[in-house]
Amino acid sequence: MNSKMTPRNTKVMNRFDVTSRLIAKLKHEEAVIGGIGNTNFDLWAAGHRPQNFYMLGSMGLAFPIALGVALAQPDRRVFALEGDGSLLMQLGALSTIAALKPKNLIMIVMDNGIYQITGAQPTPAAGVADIVAIATGSGLTNSAWAADEEDFERLVDAAMSASEPSLIALRIDDKPGVGTTRRDPVQIRERFMHGLGVREPL
Amino acid sequence: MADAEQHSSTQASGDKSWHGIVLQTLKRNAIDLIPYVPDRVLTPLIKNLHADPFFTTFATAREEEAVGIVSGAWMGGRRGAVLMQTSGFATLANTLASLAVPYQIPLIMFVSERGTLGEFNYGQSLVCRTMRPVLDSLALEHHTITRLDELEFITDRSIKQAVTTQAPVALILNPLLTGGKVFDK
Description:
The complex is a heterodimer of chains A (about 200) and B (about 180).
Chain A lengths: L14 H11 L5 E4 L3 H8 L6 E3 L7 H11 L5 E6 H5 L3 H9 L4 E7 L2 E2 L5 E2 L8 H7 L5 E3 L3 H12 L5 E6 L13 H11 L7
Parallel strand pairs in A: 1-2, 1-3, 3-4, 4-8, 7-8
Antiparallel strand pairs in A: 5-6
Chain B lengths: L3 H10 L4 H11 L2 E6 L6 H9 L4 E4 L3 H13 L3 E2 L1 E4 H4 L3 H8 L7 E5 L9 H16 L3 E5 L2 H18 L3 E5 L1 H4 L7
Parallel strand pairs in B: 1-2, 1-3, 4-5, 5-7, 6-7
Helix pairs in contact in B: 2-3, 2-8
């Protein structure tokens, strides 16, 4: 970790482990949007579900895509998994979500302070910015750091019945994703629409 | 020229302005989610969309964000369209090439055209020249609308084509249609 970073009482967790913990909790065909790179690789590795959407480009758009799904299907819980570097590309989206207040949207930020997939370069925010403070300042008052895995699961449970959008940030290690998503965008989109009940298979 | 049914629906609304026709055509095609980054020329359309409870209309911080939102909504079964200005379109190449086109999402874009026919800002005239080459390089359907009597036909048909062919479309609203924005010191 960056030596300038203020010591925190948040445990350094592992992306695949916490993603698997999240998926194990989903019992109601909740939608999950995986952001670019390792975030969706670990979502894929945690076990494909028809309600998963894997982003293969468009860095920073996991939360906006999830917002669109949440606005289209207000009775379904929609999760979005995003990396810290990705989120930095689209911080304005936090205010858009805060303004619209979709209570069925749950944002999860995996923060390792680096662009792991490109060579582990530190992000400009590493050591100086606090993602939960940014989210809170953007109007997402229901934002919190997960202290450890058990706290993460508790925050997910709370978010499932929250009356406003939730953001959960986790500090994670510098490990790469453990799988590789099949890069077939049309199949990904079509399967996702089947999973959301929008379409039937041909 | 639009067919009789399309004409009568617009006449029934009583608003034959360009923005009135766009609003009614969106409504008739069940497009009700309208994220936008504002533009002076689009102001009457944006105002009337906000005033109509049929639509969910809101500003986003960036055009990419708006594209992400309507893409997610489409996959969730809800139709949307994005409103923007020429300079905003110029921020979209990566999102078009990595999301809308490869995932076959019928992204419907209305672009208020700055940079031509009386532009006073050199930057706007330059960025305008990038728009059609970007659209053409991705082989995206696009139309430049200059005439009020063609607006409804082009808009209605383009929306239906986008949905049925699962492909993005850009409808460029030219100053000949909207009046554009002129220098007013």
